[in-house]
Amino acid sequence: MSEKIKKEIIEWIKVFAMAIVFAFIITQFIKPTLVRGDSMYSTLEEGDYLIINRMSYKFKEPERGDIIVFESDLKQEDGSTKDLVKRVIGIGGDTVKIKNSKVYVNDEELNEPYIHDEITEGDVDTIVPEGSVFVLGDNREISLDSRYDNVGFINESDILGKVFVRLYPFNRISLLD
User: Fold this and answer.
1) Domain for residue 167, yes or no?
2) How many domains are contained in the chain?
3) How many other C-beta atoms lie within 10 A of the C-beta of residue 79?
4) Would you state the pLDDT for residue 169?
5) Binning pLDDT at 50, 70 and 90, where does residue 81 land?
6) What is the DSSP letter of 173?
7) Could you say which of 2, 4, 6, 39 is catalytic?
């Protein structure tokens, strides 16, 4: 084999190795996810392709209003666990109340221009445990969220990251911060 071909092969191996290293590093910081369902409508829609920041909560706590992706105990049709996308309403130590279709955090009514309808069903009066968050979908009529026992409070350790970019559909590309 000629020296030129050997150098070419070595260069291709270097490029390939660097691509693998970069892909590994990038996936430690961000993760793509696809919206399935309408529980976050009209903020997010079925089929939206999102990028989540996996490092968001490594150095700080979740904040009210953050849109997060978290692991749930719910099962998909194939038996795997389902990741959910919801909005943080209450953080550890907060009192969350839902009464007469209004949401209150620490006795203050939330201004929620992002919700699909003005209706938030349920009769909730709870204190969010430390290390957990209380989440709701923006489309409250169909959202399976912290109001229900099969979702409940979300442990911060189950949060995969904070949604920060919608990449698809292209006409709706936006930062979601």
Assistant:
1) yes
2) 1
3) 6
4) 86
5) confident
6) -
7) 39
Q: Which amino acid is at 140?
A: R
Range of the domain at 56: 33-175
Given a contact cutoff of 8 angstroms between Cβ atoms, the answer to whether 35 and 42 are in contact is: no
Whether 25 is covered by a domain: the verdict is no
82 noted as active-site residue = no
Phi-psi region of 100 (alpha: psi -120 to 50; beta: other; left: phi over 0): left
pLDDT at 13: 93
Per-residue pLDDT tens for 99-142?
999 999 999 999 999 998 888 888 899 999 999 999 999 999 99
Catalytic residue among 14, 75, 86, 102: 86
Does the annotation mark 102 as catalytic? no
Domain of residue 43, CATH code: 2.10.109.10
Cα 101 to Cα 40, 95, 149, 151: the distances in Å are: 17, 16, 19, 20
- Domain membership of residue 22 (yes or no) is no
Confidence at residue 104, expressed as pLDDT on a 0 to 100 scale: 96
For the full predicted model, state whether its pTM sits above 0.70. yes
Rounded Cα–Cα distance for residues 39 and 146 (Å) = 13
- Residue 28 lies inside a defined structural domain of this protein: no
